[in-house]
Amino acid sequence: MKKLMVMMMMMVVMVVVSEASMVQQTCKETPNFSLCVSLLDSDPRGSSADTSGLALILVDKIKGLATKTLNEINSLYKKRPELKGALYECSRRYKAILNADVPEAIEAISKGVPKFGEDGVIDAGVEASACERGFNGKSPLTSLTKSMQNISNVTRAIVRMLL
């Protein structure tokens, strides 16, 4: 009986180690290992996900960050009326991330067509960069924009593993 319990505990430890190593191994292939691990470890689905699942978790992170950024843009309309034009363009771009890029990436990855998923992820980073440029160096969104670019780059690397 004792041997059986020891064997079962060893199997549990092996499963936990292999799950952790899946995230670690996958993140080693991305441009930002620590960001990748941080994002995937913060989601309970990460410990049991395959590569497609990890990519979908990161697409969810893109969606969450785009929503947060859009809320910040809406808040800035009242605080910084002099930035109305640039904020409007950013709002339009972040809505495109939420309404086009994220759904495209989710559908493509879920259906096993990662190339189109990669396109959606790349476009999220492009939209964030274009938003940032609209402020001509005086953006109140720089930290959110850089986060979107970094998450998009990590996500793209994982989606490329599916090609």
From TrEMBL:
Q: Which Pfam families match?
A: PMEI
Q: Which UniProt keyword terms apply here?
A: Disulfide bond, Signal
Q: Does the keyword Membrane apply?
A: no
Top-rank taxon: Eukaryota
Annotated ranges, domain Pectinesterase inhibitor: 18-158
* An MF annotation (GO) of this entry: enzyme inhibitor activity
Q: Which Gene3D superfamilies match?
A: Invertase/pectin methylesterase inhibitor family protein
Segment forming the signal sequence: 1-20
Tell me which InterPro entries the record gives.
C/VIF1, Invertase/methylesterase_inhib, PCW_Enzyme_Inhibitor, Pectinesterase_inhib_dom
Task: State the family named in the UniProt similarity comment for this chain.
Answer: Belongs to the PMEI family.
Q: What NCBIfam families would the database entry show?
A: PME_inhib
What this protein is called in its record is Pectinesterase inhibitor domain-containing protein
